[in-house]
Request: fold
Amino acid sequence: MKKGVVVVESPAKAKTLSSFLGNDYKVIASYGHIRDLPPKDGSVDTENHYSMKWEMSERGKKQLKEIVAELSKTDQLYLATDPDREGEAISWHILEALKEKKKLKGVNIKRVVFHEITKTAIEHAFKQTKDLDINMVDAYLARRALDYLVGFSLSPILWRKMPGARSAGRVQSVALRIIVERELEIQAFNSEEYWSIHGDFYAQNGDIFTNLTHFEGKKLEKLDIKSETEASTIKKVVEQKNYKIGKIEKKSVKKSPSAPFTTATFQQEAIRKLGLSAKNAMQIAQKLYEGIQIDGTMVGLITYMRTDSTALSADAVSESRSFVESEYGKNYLPKSPRVYKTKTKNAQEAHEAIRPTSFIRTPSKMQTFLPNSEFKVYELIWKRALASQMENAILDQVSIEVTSTDKSETKFRATGSTIGFDGFLKIYTESADEGTESEKTIGDAKKLPVLYEGEELNLKKINCNQHFTEPPARFNEASLVKKLEELGIGRPSTYATIINVLQERKYTTLNKRVFFPENMGFMTTSFLRNFFTKYVQYDFTADLEEDLDDISNGKARWEKILDRFWDEFGKHIKNASELSITKVIDVVEKDIENYVFKDLKNGKKCPVCSNGEIRLKFGKFGAFLGCSAYPECRFTQKINNNGEMENSAIPTTNEVIGIDERYKGDKVFLKKGPYGYYFEWEKTKDEKNKKKPKRVGIPKKICSNPTSLTLKDAIKFDQLPLELGEGISLHLGKFGPFIKHGNKTYKIPSDVDFFEIDLEQAKKMMT
Reply:
C-alpha cells in the first residue's frame, strides 16, 4: 500500500519529488489549476455573498480522475503545491472538487510546504506538515473575484462605447496608464538647446580633460549656455587666460552590494543583462526551481522564485560565507553577515530571497548540465546571492579644480576614480535602466595623472559641445516592472502576465525593446481616466493590494473587502452604461487632442470637401479620423502612432494620391481595409456592381510598402493585364505576378520591382 498520494502543479516538479520520495508515494501533477471561473456573466454572484461558479477544465477532469483512482489505494493525501497564494488555491480547488465527488471520506489531508526542491528540504517538509491556510485561500478568492468583476463588468462597456477596444483589467489598465502617460509626457516635451565647454590641458605628468564649471565668478548650471554664440563668446575669453591646479580632493567611498534577488529585481536584471522578457525569465527560473538531472539525480538548483523577500536563511548565509572565505580569502568576507530589509511597497516576506540551493554548485560546475539560457539565469542568481554576502568595494575618487591665475574665478573641474578594493565587484555588478547611473560604470572613469596643487598648466584646446535636453525615456520591460513594484501595483509574480496581455490586446507594442502605446491604448486609458478615474489611480490599486495582504494575514474578511469595492464600482458601471458614444468621443477627443490631431498639417478642416471638420471616430477595427460631413464626404485618415509605427487596427487610410484624367478627373485614393491596401476611384463604378466604386486590391506579394505607391502605380494596376508590346503582357495571378508570351508564362523574381517592369526587362526575364 502506498504511503500517500502527493499532488504538485507540474510534471517536472512531480518527477523531481518522485526521485526523492521513491516508490512509496505516488506523485501526480495537477497541471496548474484544475478549475476556474468561466468567462461569462454570473460567474461571481454579487447578490449572494460573491458565490462563485467554477468550471472544471478538460485537463483538470483527467488529473482529478487519476487522483481519485490513486486515493483508493491509500488514506494519505499530501498537497505539495507552491508555497504562495496561488499554490494554496490550487490545493483548495483539488480538495473542493474531491469533496463534491465525496472522495475524501477517511482520507488524512496534509499540506506540505517547501521553498527549495532538495532532498533535505523535502524530508523536512514531510515531517512538518500543516493544514491548508484558509486565509491565503480567501485572499485568492478575493483577488479572483475582483479581477472578474472589473474585467467582466468594464470590458463590455468598453466594447460598446469604444468599438475596437479589447478589454480592461484591474491591474492591466493601470499598467497601461503608466505607459500612455509617459508617452504623452514625451510628446509634450519641448527640447531645449544648451552648450557645454571643455578644456584640455597639458600637465607635467600627462593630459587633463575638464568641464567648465564657473565663468568669471558665476557658477554655470546645465542650461546656462543656451546658444553657439554664447559658447563662442565664452570660449574666446577663457582661451586668453592662464591656468593652474587649484584644490585636489581625494576620498575613498565604500559601495555595498545589492540584496539577493526578489521576483521583481530578478526580472529587471534578467531583462537588462540577458535580454530576456519577464515571461521567459520566470519560465527559466521555474525550470531551475523544479529541478534538472545531474549525474542521474533530479536536483532543484534555486529556491522558490516568487518572493518579495531579500532575506537568506541562516544555513544559506553560513554556506555562502564559508564559500567566500575559501574561494576568495578573508579580505572578501565582512566581519558579520549582511542583513537586508525589503523596502518595496506591499512586500510579502514569507519566503527567502531567490538563491542557489547550494553555493557549492558553482556556475562552472553546472554549465555542462544546463542549456545556455538556463545556465545564464543560474549564473546570474548565483552571483547576485553570493555577492550579497561579500565585502564592500572601495572606490578611490579624485576631484581636481583648475582655476585661472587672474581674479576672475574661472574654473574647470576634472574627476576620476579607480577601484581601490574590488570586494563584491569581483563577481557581480548591477545593471541600470537607460537614463540612470549604472553601478557597472563604477571605477571605469578616467584615471587622472599625478597632479599637485598650484601646478601651472598649459591650455591645449577649448571645445564647445552642443546638447539638447531629452524627454524621459520610454518604459522597457525592466523599468516598467520597477515602476509597478515601486507603486505597489499587482504582484511581482503577475508582472510577466500583465506585460503579455497589454501586447496581446494590441494596447502596446514592444519596439526596439521599449513600449509604445497603440492608438487603442491611448483611447482606452483616456476613457478610464475620465469615466472610471478612481479605479486607475495608482494609490487605489496599491491599497487594494494591501487589502488582499490583510486578508492573507487574517486581518480582514474577504467578503467585506468586496462589499466595499462593489458598492461603489457597481454604481460607476451603471452610470457608464448610460453614456452615449458621442459623449465618450467628445471627452476622449478633448482629453488627448494633442495626440489625436498631431499629424494634421492644415488644422481640422477637411482636405477633401473643405466643408467638414476632422473628428475622432471609432469603427469596427478601432479609432481613426474622419470628416464630420459623412456620409456626403467619406474622407478618413489613420491616427499615426508616434510617427514610428503603423497600427494594424486602423480601419482605412484614405489618402488622395492623384487625379485620373482617363476617368474625367476622378480622384484616386489609397485605402486600407481589413484585408489590406487597395486603390479606389471616387466616382467610377465597378463593372460587376455599379453601386460600388471601382477598387483594385494590392497583394502583399507585390509591394511591401503600399503607402509609397503613386497614381502611376494605380493606373498600371487598373490596366492589368498590361500589354508591354510584341505579344508580351504583364499579369497578376493568385500565386503572384507573371509575364505571358503566347502560351508560355514566366514567373517574376521577388527582387524585381513589379511596377517598373517594361518590355526590355520582360524580355530579359524570358531568356
In short: The mean pLDDT is 87. The radius of gyration is 34 Å. The first strand starts at residue 4 and ends at 8. Residues 134-161 form the longest helix (28 residues).
